[in-house]
Amino acid sequence: MLTGAAGGFGQAAARRFAAEGARLVLSDMAEVPLMALASALSEAGAEVLAEPLDVTDEAQVAAHVTGGLSRFHRLDVAVNNAGIAPPLVPLTATEAETFDRVMAINARSVFLGMKHQLPPMLAAGRGAILNVASAAGLVGAGQMAAYAASKHAVVGLTRAAADEVARRGVRVNAICPSFAATPLYDGIADALSGQRAEPRGNTDARFTRRIPMGRIASPDEVAEAMLWLTDPANSFMTGQAVAVDGGLSA
Ligand code: NAI
Fold first, then answer.
1. Is residue 176 within a helix (H) or strand (E), and if so which, with residue range?
2. Ligand 1 within 6 A of 182 CB?
3. Crossing angle for the helix pair 58-72 and 109-124, nearest 10 degrees?
4. How far is the C-alpha of 179 from the C-alpha of 208, rounded, in Å?
5. Which atom of ligand 1 is nearest to the CA of 9?
6. 130 CB near ligand 1 (under 6 Å)
7. Which one of 17, 51, 115, 202 counts the least CB within 10 Å of its CB?
8. How far apart are CA 134 and CA 126, in angstroms?
9. Does ligand 1 have an atom closer than 6 angstroms to the CB of 164?
């Protein structure tokens, strides 16, 4: 089960999990790219259930879990990946409504997802949940107060849930990528390049300068880590917020 499946990380993860033979339950608010992805995966031989939904709506989240169970009769892995990042802006200029919206889409969604994904996993005595946080869930990120708050909340939710279910066969971890080449990153970089009236290349250089590897990630690199973190063979790891950040946090 994967939310935000139509986005940069989502598409890469859906393809990577499909390549491992996973049966996929995909969702996104963006219906057109979601259905295009589902068709492409189905044509390539994957079994896919795709449903448009808003991850902040509990009834839709609950119905999606039930629908996935009716179709495939088990839930082994859930990746709570949907999220947004508003353009960079100082905390003092952040609208309260923006803060609430970012918290709802990035953090409340993870709470709602786990609330409905955990019962079938606990009933089966197995499963792995991976919540997509961010490097901004581990350290402060200037001009991104709402986003950093929401991603720290994702890490807190992950740790609490992991502790709660650790003895019942279900692992819960978070992944904390730094910037990666997706539409979300493009939105931030384009807005900043506009604000500063500088070429986009200069803006990209601001982001890559801080990363020891000297570049941002590809979505495929993040999808690879998602696969490993949710692999049943990775059986003693839970409650962790794992940086996949080219060395940024080092
Ligand atoms: P993206 O913008 O390419 O994809 C996000 C997807 O989430 C979109 O398809 C969008 O339609 C969907 N979405 C947004 N609001 C939704 C809602 N209310 N209900 C259902 N779907 C909704 O972004 P990307 O980069 O793939 O991000 C995925 C996750 O990774 C997000 O949680 C993001 O915060 C996180 N992340 C991204 C990084 C990056 O540099 N790209 C770095 C660190 C974390």
1. strand 170-177
2. yes
3. 30
4. 9
5. 26
6. no
7. 202
8. 26
9. no
The Cα–Cα gap between 180 and 248 comes to: 13
pLDDT value at residue 112: 98
pLDDT for 174 equals 99
Rounded distance between C-alpha atoms, residue 85 and residue 76, angstroms: 29
DSSP string, 136-157: GGTS--TT-HHHHHHHHHHHHH
pLDDT at 153: 98
Report the candidate in 116, 130, 137, 97 with the shortest Cα–Cα distance to residue 57: 116
CA 195 to ligand 1 center in whole angstroms: 22
Question: Which are the catalytic amino acids?
Answer: 147
> What is the Cα–Cα distance from 199 to 121, expressed in whole angstroms?
48
Triad 53, 54, 59: Cα angle to 5°? 80
* pLDDT at residue number 41: 98
> In this predicted structure, what is the pLDDT of residue 133?
98
